[in-house]
Design goal:
Number of domains: 2
CATH architecture of the largest domain: Alpha-Beta Barrel
Largest sheet: 7 strands, parallel
Structural class: alpha/beta
Bound molecules: D-glucarate, magnesium ion
Strand order of the largest sheet: 7-8-9-10-11-12-13
CATH topology of the largest domain: TIM Barrel
Order of helices and strands: EEEEEHHHHEEHEHEHEHEHEHHEHEEHH
Distance between the termini: 61 Å
């Protein structure tokens, strides 16, 4: 079989409407940015991928795109070499602090991950096989997802959104969160629930967890305050919620702080903030700081890197789950393929998809049934770009004026005293 020679790659930024979801950093702005990547080969095959869409990531991705022509799309080690050369010594800041600090390793991982998915898609299309087959074969034919619950306002602050309020309404107390969970469960069938915390006083969030447990006694619940509690507050909350949570995610900042909390609770602690690249693992394992790592191909270095992480978790007896930021269907497909081909990825995955009203892929490929998505069986990722939708979302990007993610500034439109400094609850 001849090589799959890359002739060019393009990165198209898009903006998607987003509701006012609250978190430790503030509030989601009216638009979230993503980018759609297309890698073209000499045979006319086009591999697709999805990545972040902030200015700094776009600059990085375009720099890498320029050095890809001539590479064989089967040569993933060659991809890494070219990325390392293109990145040099320049660490690119992450588009949100909610996925932990930036590092050179993470910068390389971000760029490799972005293009590796497109390379895999092209390989799958060339061979007529789904990406899961290229990753060792699917060990399950459907992948479970968790309902991702957010405190939220009914609408964006005055003057910042030129579209109708979303259909979800406000959720600012336990009743509001339970109602939101009910809609998510009825609509998508999710079998587990994750509450994004770090917004209100910890005791209020404990009450919301208790209300969820009461309303959905059969569904595991997770709570994620994005490191907005001091170790002392985190220890107190962990004691109150002993036995109530599937896991407690990033209760407090940093590996030593997490280790301090872990030492005093039987609740598993999970993270997508303090163990965010391979270099973080030795200290975390040595200190027993986390019991579950949330992988994410966007910043761990792609699908193969997530499988490498899975192996390390298995070796050290750590659980493995999956993190999400606002994303579209191309990333959803990539998440499903790697989860399907990772035997020890047994927790339901996070996804922001229910919060979206816009999409770039053609409908029909991915749908939630009983809280799960069937693994696509078509070639590559098994999803296709809807060219009209992509053009419209790119146009929306051009018009919206947002070029990064700034949840704190959006929150300050309502609460001028908000700083976003963590941990807020000490
Ligand atoms: O979308 O506001 C959000 C989340 O807080 C996200 O940015 C986090 O990175 O979902 C993520 C998490 O689990 O920490
Ligand atoms: Mg998290």
């Amino acid at each position: 079989m001849p090589g799959l020679v890359v002739t060019g790659a393009e990165v198209v930024p898009v903006a998607v409407k987003d509701p006012p979801l609250l978190n430790a950093s503030g509030c989601h702005e009216p638009f979230q940015l993503r980018s759609i990547i297309r890698v073209r080969t000499a045979d006319g095959i086009v591999g697709i991928s999805e990545a972040y869409g902030d200015d700094r990531t776009l600059e990085l991705l375009n720099r890498v795109a320029a050095v890809l022509p001539g590479l064989d799309a089967f040569d993933l080690n060659g991809l890494t070499r070219r990325v390392v050369e293109a990145v040099g010594t320049q660490t690119v800041p992450m588009f949100t602090e909610l996925i932990g600090p930036a590092s050179l390793q993470k910068t390389v991982a971000l760029a490799v991950g972005a293009f590796e998915v497109a390379f895999f898609d092209a390989q799958g299309k060339a061979l007529g096989r789904p990406v899961a087959d290229l990753l060792g074969g699917a060990v399950r034919d459907r992948v479970d997802f968790s309902a991702y619950l957010f405190y939220k306002w009914a609408e964006h602050p005055d003057g910042t959104a030129a579209f109708e309020p979303d259909e979800w309404g406000a959720a600012l107390d336990p009743d509001g969160i339970v109602a939101q969970a009910r809609t998510m469960v009825d609509r998508y069938g999710f079998g587990s629930l994750k509450l994004k915390g770090g917004v209100f006083a910890p005791q209020e969030e404990v009450e919301a967890v208790r209300a969820l447990r009461k309303a959905f006694p059969d569904r595991p619940v997770r709570l994620d305050p994005n490191a907005n509690w001091s170790p002392e507050v985190a220890a107190r909350v962990a004691a109150e919620l002993e036995g109530e949570l599937e896991y407690l995610e990033d209760p407090t900042p940093g590996i030593p702080g997490m280790a301090q909390v872990a030492a005093g609770t039987s609740l598993p602690l999970a993270t997508n903030m303090c163990v965010v690249c391979f270099a973080d693992l030795p200290e975390a394992v040595r200190l027993g700081a986390v019991q579950v790592v949330l992988s994410d191909h966007h910043f761990w270095g792609g699908l193969r890197a997530c499988q490498r992480l899975a192996g390390i978790c298995e070796t050290f007896g750590l659980g493995l789950s999956m993190h999400s930021n606002t994303h579209l269907g191309v990333s959803l497909a990539a998440m499903v393929h790697v989860a399907a081909a990772t035997p020890n990825l047994t927790y339901a995955l996070d996804t922001h998809v229910p919060w979206k009203t816009e999409e770039v892929i053609r409908p029909g490929a991915l749908a939630f049934r009983d809280g799960a998505i069937g693994v696509p069986t078509g070639p590559g990722l098994g999803v296709e770009i809807d060219e009209d939708a992509l053009a419209a979302l790119h146009e929306q990007y051009v018009r919206c004026g947002i070029r990064g993610r700034d949840d704190a500034t959006h929150m300050r439109r309502v609460d001028p005293s908000f700083t976003g400094a963590r941990p807020r609850f000490a």
